[in-house]
Structures are given as C-alpha cells and as structure tokens.
Amino acid sequence: MLFILMLIMLYPFYYVFIASFNKGSDTLLGGIYLWPRNVTLENYKIFLEDPKWYRAFLVTVARTISGTALGLLLTSLVAYALSHRDLLFSKTYFTVIIFAMYFSGGLIPYYVVLRSIGLLNSFAVYIVPSMLNTFFLLIAISFFREIPGELKESAHIDGAGELKIFFRIILPVSTPVLATMALFMGVGQWNSWLDSAYFVQSENLRTLTFRMMEVINKSNTPLDSIAVANSASATAGVTSFSLQVTAMVISIVPIICVYPFLQKYFVHGIMLGSVKG
C-alpha cells in the first residue's frame, strides 16, 4: 500500500519531468505516460534564451540566498537574546511575539506600511519583511535554552562578550535547528510569488514563481489558444504548457538538490526546538 501511495504521489512530478523534454505541440495530443515521445531540448533552450525567464530565475536565486541568510542571522540573534531567562520584560516580549504570530493587520495595512518605509517596487521588499520569523524565533529560543549554561559562563570568565559567545559557541552547537530553519526559510523564499504580484511593478524584479503563475493564468484565457498556436509554430513546437512544466522542473531541482544535505538535521532540529522548553 505504501508503494502504491508513493507511485501516486511521485507520478505527477515524473510526468512534469518527461513533458519538459517532449515537444510541446506533441504533448498537447496526449498519450504520454512513461517517457517522452518526441524528445527535444527546445523547451529548455527557449526558457534559457528568454531574458524574462532568465532574469526571473536570477532574482529568485538572489532573494533565496540573501533572504535565507539574513533571516537566519536576525532570527537567531533575537532568539539568543530572548533565551536568557533573566532578561528584563521577557514576558512582555513573548506576549508581543505570540500576538504578532497569530494576528495580522491585513493586506491593506501591510501594503501601507511597506509604502511608508519605501520598500515597494524594490528588491528589499523580498528580504526585509521576512528577516524575522516569529515561528522559528520560538523554536530557536527553546533550542538555545537547552544549551548548557556552563559553556557561556566559562566564555564570560575568559572575557568573551555576548556577540563572541553567540558566533563562536552558540552557533557551532546549533547546527540542527539552524539547518531546519534554513530549509524552511529557503523553500519559503523560493516558492513565494504573492509579494512579487502585490508589491512589485518592475518587470526586472519579477520572480520565477510569479512568471509560472502568469503562464498558468494566461493559458486559462480563451484567446490564449490562438496565441499558443502561433507561438508553437514560431518556436519549434514550444507551447505555454511545455514552457510551464520546464519552469517547474527548473524550480524544483535546486530544492531537491539541497534537501538531502539538510535532511539529517531536519527531524532532530525541529523536535528539539518544539518539544523541549
């Protein structure tokens, strides 16, 4: 039963993969189940040669790397500060964090805030709002509190400051929770498209997932069938669907390549951060 369930879950991904290597106009005829019927690399060629898709891919890579790194750094710093049990007004801080995690002002107030601080239509709108994640903040606090206090006390005796303790002692022993946070933050940055749709107007700042949603929405319009037919004849059988599945493969492969390196830390980190406290 588990094997059948695995096949049911994996086959859609496999179909997208083989469809990306099949001629787009031939894929529309149906009948492709196990392997490409008309093998071609034209879909990937068109994708990589189109400056719109190529630029969107670079923007997505840039926001994923920078957003994950900065989000991990800021969330860890705040979590380390709040993990001190003798911190003044700690209950007030936790009340604000929990309230912010469960309640939000809504899309329009959020838009007004972004506009007031000058983040609209800029690359920073992808990075700054996500630099502090309240959910992972609580997990990191619980994890940091489980680190023996003797490590910090001995460092204090040797004259180390809080920042030196954080970077030289706390972070090296916090690999499980950091890897877990990095995986979730990276996937969230990679898959995000709403911020590109609502808060960005420049075509140079569009993300890969936004371009994919754009293709999906256009393919649902009645007039698109004519445009697709013209495009297919002009680009050697490449259709909007073949370009869409190609973008899916390119967007999935980096996550699949990164996940195996973080998997061994994943369960350990998420359990330690959420169960103990």
Automatic annotation (TrEMBL):
<dbReference type="InterPro" id="IPR035906">
    <property type="entry name" value="MetI-like_sf"/>
</dbReference>
<feature type="transmembrane region" description="Helical">
    <location>
        <begin position="56"/>
        <end position="80"/>
    </location>
</feature>
<feature type="domain" description="ABC transmembrane type-1">
    <location>
        <begin position="57"/>
        <end position="254"/>
    </location>
</feature>
<feature type="transmembrane region" description="Helical">
    <location>
        <begin position="92"/>
        <end position="111"/>
    </location>
</feature>
<feature type="transmembrane region" description="Helical">
    <location>
        <begin position="165"/>
        <end position="187"/>
    </location>
</feature>
<comment type="similarity">
    <text>Belongs to the binding-protein-dependent transport system permease family.</text>
</comment>
<keyword id="KW-1003">Cell membrane</keyword>
<dbReference type="GO" id="GO:0005886">
    <property type="term" value="C:plasma membrane"/>
</dbReference>
<feature type="transmembrane region" description="Helical">
    <location>
        <begin position="123"/>
        <end position="144"/>
    </location>
</feature>
<keyword id="KW-1133">Transmembrane helix</keyword>
<keyword id="KW-0813">Transport</keyword>
<dbReference type="Pfam" id="PF00528">
    <property type="entry name" value="BPD_transp_1"/>
</dbReference>
<keyword id="KW-0812">Transmembrane</keyword>
<dbReference type="GO" id="GO:0055085">
    <property type="term" value="P:transmembrane transport"/>
</dbReference>
<dbReference type="InterPro" id="IPR000515">
    <property type="entry name" value="MetI-like"/>
</dbReference>
<keyword id="KW-0472">Membrane</keyword>
<protein>
    <submittedName>
        <fullName>ABC transporter permease</fullName>
    </submittedName>
</protein>
<feature type="transmembrane region" description="Helical">
    <location>
        <begin position="241"/>
        <end position="262"/>
    </location>
</feature>
